Amino acid sequence: MTEYASLLALVPLLPLFSALILLFSKLPKLWISIFAVGSVASVALISLFFNVIFWQQSDFVLTASLGTWINIAQLKINFGLYLDPLSLVMITIVSGVGALIHLYSTGFMYQDNDLKRYFTYLNLFVSAMLFLVLADNLLLLYLGWEGVGLCSYLLIGFWYQDRKNNLAANKAFLMTRIGDTAMAIGLFLLFTQLGTLDIQEIQIKAHAVWSLNNDNNTMASLCCLLLLAGAVGKSAQLPLQNWLPDAMAGPTPVSALIHAATMVTAGIYLIARNSQLFQLAPDVLYLVALIGTFTLLLGASAAMVQTDLKRILAYSTISQLGYMFLALGVGAGASAVFHLMTHAFFKALLFLAAGALIYSLHHEHNIFKMGGLLKKLPVVAVSFAIGCAALASLPFTAGFFSKELILAQVIASGHSGLWWAAVLGAFITAFYSARLFFVVFLGQTQLSPNARPTKSMSLALVILSVLSLFGGIHPEGLKSLMPQLDTDGLSTLQHWLPIILPFIAISLAWWLFKTKRFGKPVPAFMQGVHQLVKSGWAFDRLYQTIIVSPFNTLCQVNKDDFIDLFYRLIEKTSGRLHMVFSKFQNGQLRRYNASLILFCILAFAWFISGELML
């Protein structure tokens, strides 16, 4: 398989080269679009080729080296790429969905004056994510990890003229740095303990050094906790989840790329890639499951009361990522990756359909200022219907297969409490998905479209609609990664309740819609709770109270900086000593002679006194 190594090397390099070409050249908009879309589409074709080549192989490995990065003493780091079933699934998602988002962007962003800068960032974003998922060592993975963090900052604040966009970009950058710092410490610790950063060697050496039968697995738990902190920050899980709703400040295709194919999926991939290491820390795995469970409930409940179209989808992403964490925590990593794939399809579809709505409705975001768009925007309406159905896990959609598999494996793991919480989250998800569709497309007309989606936008929506419907049917190439859904061990209730509940939730949403209860003012006794949930359970206010405000107060108290006071004291003492000693330099020769005589007398007296004492 060495003949395919050069082809593998092109996967992260093509979008990187395209970004550099766009950055350092002056091209018309047409050629900008051709370079940007063509590079990612080429990677998608290469990924498709690898899927065909390895169609029925379950244990293939393909490696490629782009040269040596670091070679110091015992530390040798290569720009090494590693393709196996897991990374093949990831590059297929990243390049396939990324290519469709690029295609969509050619229509959505064509009138923007900074189209070249936009596609430069977008290409760089995809390249960084591809390096992340193909890296054969944790340091190269970390390079891609920080690359997607940088690009998300640049793209969230793309329209930097508006200060709120800059604040949203800063928030995303700083909050994810918390997890990134912990992850960096984890890499140092892994290297000092195991002597390598090669991902496959870490899995082998960790089992040799930190066996479950050995009391030394505390170190394994610590390393896993540090890696988990990085995953929590990147994948917007409790308690670092509240940067993601504000990340909607960027262009809508950027939101689709962040939420569907790149940045937020990085944390899921990190834990899945190091699954053997995490198996040595069962307590940490249970913590992963708990974090995922609480996050999915938080995200679903917050999405249920939002009025901003993109914030509904943002909280929905937080919730669906919670399902993936839950699956990872109960040892169902393959199910988590499978849901990552189906979620990429229908969440990209929903975000791009939302972008088409905003594009067509005078850039309106409030769903209660829309309505009656079923016949006016048929392509968008059908796309939204399919995306909402997959999000609600209606039978035979892509989301149904992956979410049902997660629920089945959670109950099989013996965590019945987590299963009930996940089922409740699925009910809420179906409810707000139906609420969103009913209000926007079947509600009373508020705005008439002033534009229509372009052909490139419509084409991307159609392809993603097909994937959202049929993307959950397990292809042969995924069988090694994705076990088939086995319901033999489930009771009748456990099997049918998750299937029936979405229909009950949709019926409830339909009744509330028909009785015109959506959009009405919240009763006075519920306003406090409603505002709490709408604010994402007030995490911003909490952090403002316990971290930001005390820090600002401390800065105000210490505005003169007590450390600087020490150095200012040295400065003032030196200055005053200078003033004192400068009086001896007055240009009068008699005083100079007198001071020399006085010094000699004192020195002679000190010498004589010392001799007498002896």
Automatic annotation (TrEMBL):
Bilayer-spanning residue ranges: 6-24, 31-55, 86-106, 118-135, 141-160, 172-191, 252-272, 284-305, 312-338, 373-398, 418-442, 454-473, 493-513, 592-609
Keyword set includes Membrane: yes
Keyword DNA repair annotated: no
Primary subcellular site in the record, as a coarse category: membrane
Gene3D superfamilies for the chain: 1.20.5.2700
Residue ranges annotated for the NADH-Ubiquinone oxidoreductase (complex I) chain 5 N-terminal domain, each copy included: 69-119
Location relative to the cell: Endomembrane system; Membrane
InterPro entries: NADHpl_OxRdtase_5_subgr, ND/Mrp_TM, NU5C-like, Proton_antipo_N
Domain called NADH:quinone oxidoreductase/Mrp antiporter transmembrane: residue spans: 135-429
Pfam families referenced in this protein's UniProt entry, alphabetically: Proton_antipo_M (PF00361), Proton_antipo_N (PF00662)
The entry's keywords: Membrane, Transmembrane, Transmembrane helix
Membrane topology: Multi-pass membrane protein
Matching NCBIfam families: NDH_I_L, PRK06590.1
Protein name: NADH:ubiquinone oxidoreductase subunit L
Organism: Colwellia marinimaniae
Taxonomic classification: Bacteria, Pseudomonadati, Pseudomonadota, Gammaproteobacteria, Alteromonadales
Gene that encodes the chain: nuoL
